[in-house]
Amino acid sequence: MPPIYLDYNASTPIDPAVADAMRLFLDGAFGNPSSGHWASAPAKAALEHARDQVAALLGASPDEIVFTSGGSEANNLAIKGTFLALRHKGEHIVTTAVEHPAVLAPCRFLERLGATVTVLPVDGTGRVDPDDVHRAITPRTILISVMHANNEVGTIQPIAEIAAIARDHGVRFHTDAAQSIGKIATRVDTLGVDLLTIAGHKLYAPKGVGALYVRRGVELESLIHGAGHEHGRRAGTESALLAAGLGTACALAQDLAQMERVRALRDRFWQALRNRFGDRVLLNGHLNHRLPNTLNVSFVGKVGADILAQLDGVAASTGSACHSGRVELSPVLAAMGVPERVGMGAFRFSLGRQSTDAEIDEVVARLANVPALAA
Ligand SMILES: Cc1ncc(COP(=O)(O)O)c(C=O)c1O
Q1: Does pTM surpass 0.90?
Q2: Of 133, 167, 218, 245, which has the fewest beta carbons less than 10 angstroms from its beta carbon?
Q3: In this structure, are strands 210-214 and 195-199 parallel, antiparallel, or unpaired?
């Protein structure tokens, strides 16, 4: 059996159609999209076509899309850019304990510049309570940032409800949709968000490209100053190569029906684990409000990394990390209140377009053969 990849939340392979769309810019179309002559034409056209494709997936206008180097930059632009643009109005930011470091670290950085940050707790399934968001808002609140879906456990947040609260209070609302794009619907008007983050490499596009949706009229300071690229919101000559890849990936992601096959496969996987291990395996995250591709499970009383080490050739993630000889729970599982005995044995299996029944059967069989998991 060839190696098995069940870590699509970490990164996805580049889709062949995405690679095809990029080829023109590897094979000679090198012009600067901002130039005014023949050599710029293919790059300019591809860039604007890609912007249309990203906007179409989100139900947005092309002028609301800013290309970035990825999800981390988009989150930094949303959070720092809002703070820098609005700090005359207030300095308070609300976020949650289960955000990706690309949200939490910019918030921590802004504290050094005078921001105050409220980090909201989550329940045992990883969900934030919209009432907690409501209660956290003060007259000084300028931004709420709550991720759409969690990268580790897949839990989906009540974004539309939180957005309505933010709107009622005149507070900007950002969601990190790096994990939800292409897996569930992400139309910005249904979600009600002002700012939304996309990361290309979670979406069958290359690493090093992403985008930030910025609702028209939303004030944002640029983090990279220079010539007026991206409507003055992100200086630097745009990469038509990477934009074409992201645009094509977004066009492919319009078809959410393909995720239903992945969901069925994921559910069959979970059922097979329950059949084999019974109550010795537990589900982490929300049973229903969860990404269709994500299965985070705990082998109670075991250490995930030890088990993974015995699954030769299987790519997956564990929910604990070894720091200075001590096994530590991931901050997400810790925030969910998952007990140590359970969290230490956590595994994230994340499936994708190329995942097959045979791979799932093989992983279940290999887990059944791991001595530490014998009944
Ligand atoms: C939820 C979430 N946000 C942001 C990022 C960062 O994206 P990038 O790797 O494109 O910087 C990731 C990637 O792991 C993620 O899972």
Answers
A1: yes
A2: 167
A3: antiparallel
